[in-house]
Write a structure and sequence with these properties.
It contains two helices and ten strands; from the N terminus they run E-H-H-E-E-E-E-E-E-E-E-E. It is mainly β. It is globular and about 35 Å long.
Length: 137
């Protein structure tokens, strides 16, 4: 997990707008999200991990202990129960929707070499796969 610590800037986003549409994010928010260049910072202190994602419009923080479920409101407004684990050297986040009719997601962050993080997001019940790449800065 220590390999993930650091600061990254997004370099590409494949099928990201389609993913946001699948999650019922409105047009204006989708456009804002796709034109921004987020910076992701991964840190850990005392067993509590923090993944902070910042754009010019918004900063979101995901604080967690590995393997412990917690309540979260996602950036698109879904109420979920999230669990983050480390599997085969990858950070795996599962977000289970609390409300009927809302979507659940799974995301995987993995290192590709020392300086690139690949962030893959899937939506339960859909074959859509969004892949974002981040370069260490």
């Amino acid at each position: 997990m220590d390999a993930f610590k650091g600061k990254y800037e997004r370099t590409s986003a494949d099928k990201y707008e389609e993913l946001l549409k699948e999650l019922d994010v409105n047009f204006l928010l989708r456009k804002a999200a796709t034109v921004s260049t987020p910076v992701m910072e991964v840190s850990e202190e005392g067993g509590v991990w923090n993944i902070k994602t910042s754009t010019t419009l918004k900063t979101m923080e995901l604080k967690f202990k590995l393997g412990e479920a917690f309540d979260e409101t996602t950036p698109d407004g879904r109420e979920v129960v999230a669990t983050v684990t480390c599997e085969d050297g990858k950070i795996v986040t599962v977000q289970k929707a609390k409300k009927e009719g809302q979507k659940s997601t799974k995301s995987v962050r993995e290192m590709n070499g020392a300086d690139e993080m690949v962030y893959t997001i899937t939506v339960d019940g859909s074959d859509l796969v969004s892949v974002q790449k981040f370069k260490r800065v």
